[in-house]
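Problem: given the chain below (392 residues), write out its structure.
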Amino acid sequence: MYDSRLDNITSLEFSAVARKARNDGQNLISLGLGEPHWDPPIEITNHLSQIIKDSSFGYSSPYGETSLRESILSDLNNKYQLKFNLSNVMITNGAKGALTLALSSILEAGDNVLVVEPCYVSYIPQIFLAAPNTSPISFKLDSNFDFDFVQLKKVLLDKKPKCILISSPCNPTGISLSADELSNLVSLARLVDCYLIVDEIYSDLSLESNVNSRFTTSLSLFNTYNKLIYINGFSKTFAMTSWRIGFLIANNFVINRSLKLLQHQITCIPSFLQKSASKFLHVHPSWVHDKCLSLRKNLNLFSQVIEDHSLCDIISFRRPSHGMFVFPHVDLPNFDSDKFSSNLLKSKSVAVAPGKIFGSSWNNYIRISLASPCDVFSEGIHKLIYFIKESP
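Solution.
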């Protein structure tokens, strides 16, 4: 059922300007999209070609290909020393598809969902689509993107939401939840008996200088809290955004409902893509490490350019730990992120994402993607800096 609230989601001036620029064939430097600039490993694309030649093209199980699900569990065990049952894992139409299934499985008319902001732009619309009369509750992090757990507890006890929805690493901030924060979230979710959905699609892309530092995953608490739902996928790390291969790990109730929904919506995920995707999990770690280094190089460049131009008082940010974004605060008079992004695009042909699309409280921020080739990123950042220096 279409939810008319989708019609009331803010239409940004920036979006209209960007569409016109693309339609006019304008040469843009895009620092706005969360899409990797690198190609998938060549051995994987070669493997896909072979599978297309050799495979049948019949229906797959709605659970997903067993080989891919087993590879996912093996990969998670290697990374985090965690074991799960195969019955708790299903393949989905991207990470976004996993979230759609999870929300649709647990929400009923009149339920509330607490969304931690700033948040990914599709979270609120997906809540609208999941169930009639479902209401999102915005819980805002502080200016350093930290939790006020005392206030969160009050909101949870007052509103009694059906679930809490959060991304870690966060899109747009790139900040990851610590072990203590995850533990606190699970404790509060247990207190009000609600689900905790954690989207970890950017977890493999480390921006930390210590390459041996381990990401703190919510899966470490999966076996201690039955209502934790984990979402991930292949799009970001392996540059396969159009393949739409994600996965969902949840309790049997959520998985069984999700299977029924998927069967009646799209039947299954294409089997030949799943079979090839399983090979991604056997790519040598050095390949992923190299991609993280390119993101980190762009992040360091951004920081250095701000310092070189003495703009630290105007552009300030908390250094992200993972992902492919930085989310700086811009301290300019009468700043509006939508107008700023639109004027930057018109004046310098550089696209960044307005902060207000990640929550109304973040209008003094912009999201910058680090996922461009270094020379392109450098040109775009210098144009951004010059635009800010030219601002009244």
